[in-house]
Amino acid sequence: MPVLPDFRLETYFSKWEFKARYHMTASDAQSMTVKELLALASAEDRAAFETLGLGYTETFGAPSLREAIAATYERQSAANILCFAGAEESIYTAMHALLDKGDHAIVVTPNYQSAETIPLSICDVTGVPLDPDKQWALDIGKVAAAIRPQTKLVSINFPHNPTGKILERDRFDALVELCRKHGLWLFSDEVYRPLGVTGAPQLPQAVDVYERGLSLGVMSKAYGLPGLRIGWLACRDHNLLVRMERLKHYLSICNSAPSERLAIIALKNRDKILARIQGLMARNLKALDRFFGDYQGLFDWYRPDGGCVAYPRYRGREGVEQFAADLVERTGVLFLPASVYRSDLNPAPDDRFRIGYGRANMEEGLGTLRSYLEREPAALTS
User: Which of 154, 145, 26, 175 lies closest to 99 in space, CA to CA?
Assistant: First the structure.
């Protein structure tokens, strides 16, 4: 197997994530303690957690967990759910189950690095970029033009990381029909789907509308519970689920039993958890609107449609890489610069940075950023 390159995002985080005072680039929503989560549990679910045996669990995931996950879809049953140790294992397993040497895949860029790195380690891959000059639009015609006789898979991610873009419904429907016409798998990273700007329409989940759709979900992002390490794929093709399960035997084998039980509690209380996070995000977005409105000459602000991350443009003359480095070193404010989202498939904007707005310290971090900008007049010159 080819040696995979360094994961740029995780390498950057390994240096700064737990040192920075203000983690302003987090891709997950505000988390909660075990005590807070258990307070939401029914007496029955709390007892099930407290009396849980610490043995192995089923490779597919506990039946009750799969039922709770299936309930978040419109048309799926527990039989269509395969659980993983987070979303990353899901991506790795799906790509190796679906792709072989000689195949071809299409990936939307910019993206979470493994969405292109893992397919590239297996077969030929074509990137189709979102257009930053058209509000990160996806040109379905370019996807169609990239299809070859060997094409097997199209990989998308909406709400998008890092831009927060939600694909327009008519374009999504056109993409599904394009995949159906050519018999392609549609791998749909939907980890941010439960989160969106108030009133913004959400896309249907790929597995609910397309027989070859794979929908990726996780407890980490929208639910703010990354410590559980519980992810899943929803798929209607049982033979493919079995192939992925057998690959999982070489990876995590099974999930953590306590994590599965806590994930069940969270999913049963998803409305309460998501309402808390949505309220926090709404306040944070207003703060971001005010901030970027005050610095329109230095930043271009694209207000995200969904998820809890955004990808503004930095116009300062020193460039976004130096800006991000100076900022974290001098103030402890952490952003992810554009180099983390560099693509090996096609050019990507090099003047952006990712900001996360799903956590609770947004106002304080923005205050520190304001102070930094006022102390550094050179940075205010675009």
Answer: 154
